Amino acid sequence: MKACDPLVREQAQIVVTAASYQSNGAYSSRPSIALCTQEYRIFNCEILFKEDITVDDLIDIIEGNRKYVKCLYVYNKVDMCSLEEVDEIAHKPNSIPISCSNPPLNLDGLLERIWDMMALVGVTHWMPGA
Known about the structure:
Blueprint: E1 4-8, E2 14-18, H1 30-39, E3 45-49, H2 55-63, E4 73-75, H3 83-90, E5 95-97, H4 107-117
Parallel strand pairs: 2-3, 4-5
Antiparallel strand pairs: 1-3
Protein backbone atom coordinates (compact mmCIF):
# COMPACT_ATOMS: atom_id res chain seq x y z
CA MET A 1 0.00 0.00 0.00
CA LYS A 2 1.43 3.36 -1.04
CA ALA A 3 1.66 6.36 1.24
CA CYS A 4 -0.46 8.38 -1.17
CA ASP A 5 -2.31 7.65 -4.40
CA PRO A 6 -2.32 10.19 -7.21
CA LEU A 7 -5.41 9.78 -9.41
CA VAL A 8 -5.62 11.66 -12.71
CA ARG A 9 -8.86 13.61 -13.13
CA GLU A 10 -10.56 15.17 -16.13
CA GLN A 11 -11.40 18.46 -14.42
CA ALA A 12 -8.80 21.23 -14.37
CA GLN A 13 -8.02 21.08 -10.66
CA ILE A 14 -5.86 19.44 -8.02
CA VAL A 15 -7.86 17.92 -5.16
CA VAL A 16 -5.93 16.99 -2.01
CA THR A 17 -7.43 14.95 0.85
CA ALA A 18 -5.90 13.24 3.87
CA ALA A 19 -7.03 9.94 5.40
CA SER A 20 -4.70 10.28 8.38
CA TYR A 21 -3.15 12.96 10.56
CA GLN A 22 -0.69 15.23 8.71
CA SER A 23 1.83 17.10 10.87
CA ASN A 24 4.17 19.24 8.77
CA GLY A 25 4.18 17.10 5.67
CA ALA A 26 3.25 17.78 2.07
CA TYR A 27 -0.46 18.15 2.92
CA SER A 28 0.16 21.32 4.93
CA SER A 29 1.74 23.15 1.99
CA ARG A 30 -0.81 22.94 -0.82
CA PRO A 31 1.00 25.43 -3.10
CA SER A 32 4.08 23.19 -3.02
CA ILE A 33 1.89 20.22 -4.01
CA ALA A 34 0.62 22.20 -7.00
CA LEU A 35 4.17 23.14 -7.98
CA CYS A 36 5.35 19.52 -7.70
CA THR A 37 2.54 18.15 -9.81
CA GLN A 38 2.89 20.89 -12.43
CA GLU A 39 6.61 20.19 -12.68
CA TYR A 40 5.78 16.61 -13.68
CA ARG A 41 3.05 17.85 -16.09
CA ILE A 42 0.17 16.68 -13.92
CA PHE A 43 -2.41 19.46 -13.95
CA ASN A 44 -5.59 17.55 -13.05
CA CYS A 45 -5.36 15.04 -10.23
CA GLU A 46 -6.74 13.91 -6.90
CA ILE A 47 -4.18 13.07 -4.21
CA LEU A 48 -5.16 11.02 -1.16
CA PHE A 49 -2.60 11.04 1.67
CA LYS A 50 -2.75 7.79 3.64
CA GLU A 51 0.10 8.67 6.01
CA ASP A 52 2.21 11.64 7.05
CA ILE A 53 4.64 12.28 4.20
CA THR A 54 6.90 15.11 3.08
CA VAL A 55 7.09 16.85 -0.29
CA ASP A 56 10.14 14.72 -1.11
CA ASP A 57 8.10 11.56 -0.50
CA LEU A 58 5.39 12.92 -2.80
CA ILE A 59 7.95 13.48 -5.56
CA ASP A 60 9.28 9.95 -5.09
CA ILE A 61 5.75 8.56 -5.47
CA ILE A 62 5.06 10.63 -8.57
CA GLU A 63 8.30 9.51 -10.22
CA GLY A 64 7.71 5.92 -9.13
CA ASN A 65 11.34 4.87 -9.50
CA ARG A 66 12.48 4.91 -5.87
CA LYS A 67 12.96 1.82 -3.74
CA TYR A 68 13.61 2.25 -0.03
CA VAL A 69 15.29 -0.46 2.01
CA LYS A 70 15.98 -0.85 5.70
CA CYS A 71 19.37 0.16 7.01
CA LEU A 72 21.41 -0.56 10.11
CA TYR A 73 23.82 2.07 11.42
CA VAL A 74 26.89 0.39 12.91
CA TYR A 75 29.06 2.59 15.14
CA ASN A 76 32.59 1.22 15.48
CA LYS A 77 35.28 2.10 18.07
CA VAL A 78 32.77 2.75 20.85
CA ASP A 79 35.43 1.71 23.36
CA MET A 80 36.86 5.23 22.89
CA CYS A 81 33.52 6.86 23.83
CA SER A 82 32.11 7.52 27.25
CA LEU A 83 29.42 5.23 28.65
CA GLU A 84 26.77 7.97 28.24
CA GLU A 85 27.61 8.34 24.52
CA VAL A 86 27.45 4.58 23.98
CA ASP A 87 24.09 4.45 25.77
CA GLU A 88 22.81 7.29 23.57
CA ILE A 89 23.96 5.47 20.40
CA ALA A 90 22.40 2.20 21.56
CA HIS A 91 18.99 3.85 22.02
CA LYS A 92 18.89 5.37 18.52
CA PRO A 93 16.62 3.52 16.09
CA ASN A 94 18.34 1.08 13.71
CA SER A 95 21.71 1.64 15.40
CA ILE A 96 24.15 -0.66 17.13
CA PRO A 97 27.47 0.20 18.80
CA ILE A 98 30.38 -2.22 18.34
CA SER A 99 34.12 -2.32 18.80
CA CYS A 100 36.54 -4.54 16.91
CA SER A 101 39.28 -4.05 19.51
CA ASN A 102 40.73 -6.89 21.54
CA PRO A 103 38.44 -8.26 22.98
CA PRO A 104 35.70 -7.39 20.46
CA LEU A 105 32.56 -5.81 21.91
CA ASN A 106 28.97 -6.52 20.80
CA LEU A 107 29.82 -8.38 17.59
CA ASP A 108 27.38 -11.12 18.60
CA GLY A 109 24.70 -8.46 19.05
CA LEU A 110 25.49 -7.11 15.57
CA LEU A 111 25.20 -10.57 14.04
CA GLU A 112 21.87 -11.17 15.82
CA ARG A 113 20.51 -7.76 14.73
CA ILE A 114 21.47 -8.47 11.09
CA TRP A 115 19.67 -11.81 11.21
CA ASP A 116 16.59 -10.16 12.77
CA MET A 117 16.43 -7.24 10.32
CA MET A 118 16.89 -9.46 7.27
CA ALA A 119 14.43 -12.04 8.67
CA LEU A 120 16.92 -14.83 8.06
CA VAL A 121 16.17 -18.31 9.30
CA GLY A 122 18.86 -20.91 9.93
CA VAL A 123 18.01 -24.32 8.51
CA THR A 124 20.07 -27.35 9.39
CA HIS A 125 19.68 -30.60 7.48
CA TRP A 126 20.70 -33.67 9.41
CA MET A 127 21.66 -36.74 7.47
CA PRO A 128 19.63 -39.79 8.49
CA GLY A 129 21.68 -42.11 10.68
CA ALA A 130 24.45 -39.57 11.27
